[in-house]
Write a structure and sequence with these properties.
Blueprint: H1 2-25, E1 29-34, E2 39-43, E3 52-57, E4 61-67, E5 73-77, E6 83-87, E7 91-92, H2 97-188, H3 195-199
Antiparallel strand pairs: 1-4, 1-7, 2-3, 4-5, 5-6
C-alpha cells in the first residue's frame, strides 16, 4: 500500500516538475485571442473555483503568460491589462473575426482598385487594338487602290508603247513607199536630150 502511495507521489511530483519546466520555457506571447462567438470568465487562479475577475469578450487579443500543470487553464493578460486565468480550450492563435474584418476590407478595397485599374487598362488596350485594326484596314484599302492604279498606268504605258510602235511602223512604211514610188517615177521620167548632140 505504501509503495502505491509512493508511486502516486512520485508521479505527481514528476508531473509538477515537467509543468514547471514547460512554464519556464514558455514566453509571453501576444499572438493569441479568445475564440469568437463566446465570452469567458477570467479567474484569479487556474481553476473554476477561483474568484472571477470579470469576463473576456470573444476576439479579444491576449498575452499568454503561463499554463497550469494539466494545461487546462492558461494565465493571460487581456487588453485591459487584467492578469488572470482562462480555460485553455478557449485560447487560439487565430486572429479574431473582429480584427480580420478591417484587414479583409482593406484587401478587398485594394483588390477592387486594382481590378478597376486593370479594367481601364484593358479598355485602353482594346481601343488601341481597334484603332490599329482600322489603320490596317485603311492601309490595306490604300494598298489595293495603289496596286489598281499601278496596273492601270502600266496598261496605259503598254498601250502607248504599242501605239507609238505602230505609228513608227506606219511612218516607216509611208517613207519606204514614198521612196519606192519616187524611184519608179524617176525611172519613167523622160530624159532631156543634149543639144550639142542634136546639131551633129
Amino acid at each position: 500500500m505504501i509503495r502505491k502511495w509512493l508511486a502516486v507521489a512520485l508521479f505527481a511530483c514528476s508531473c509538477q516538475a515537467l509543468a514547471l519546466q514547460e512554464s519556464d520555457t514558455l514566453e509571453a506571447s501576444s499572438s493569441h485571442y479568445i475564440r469568437d462567438d463566446l465570452f469567458i470568465f477570467l479567474h484569479t487562479g487556474p481553476g473554476r473555483n477561483y474568484r472571477i475577475l470579470g469576463s473576456v469578450e470573444a476576439g479579444t487579443p491576449i498575452t499568454v503568460l503561463d499554463r497550469d500543470a494539466d494545461a487546462e487553464f492558461t494565465q493571460v493578460t487581456d487588453d485591459e491589462g487584467r492578469k488572470g486565468w482562462v480555460e485553455s480550450k478557449y485560447v487560439t492563435t487565430e486572429m479574431s473575426q473582429a480584427e480580420k474584418l478591417p484587414i479583409l476590407s482593406e484587401q478587398l478595397a485594394q483588390s477592387q482598385t486594382s481590378l478597376q485599374t486593370t479594367q481601364r487598362e484593358n479598355a485602353n488596350l482594346r481601343q488601341q487594338l481597334n484603332d490599329a485594326r482600322q489603320q490596317i484596314t485603311q492601309l490595306t484599302t490604300d494598298t489595293e487602290q495603289q496596286n489598281n492604279d499601278i496596273k492601270r498606268l502600266s496598261a496605259q504605258v503598254e498601250s502607248a508603247d504599242k501605239d507609238e510602235l505602230v505609228t513608227w511602223f506606219t511612218r516607216g512604211g509611208i517613207v519606204a513607199g514614198a521612196g519606192i514610188l519616187l524611184g519608179v517615177l524617176l525611172t519613167y521620167m523622160p530624159k532631156k536630150r543634149n543639144r550639142s548632140k542634136e546639131w551633129m
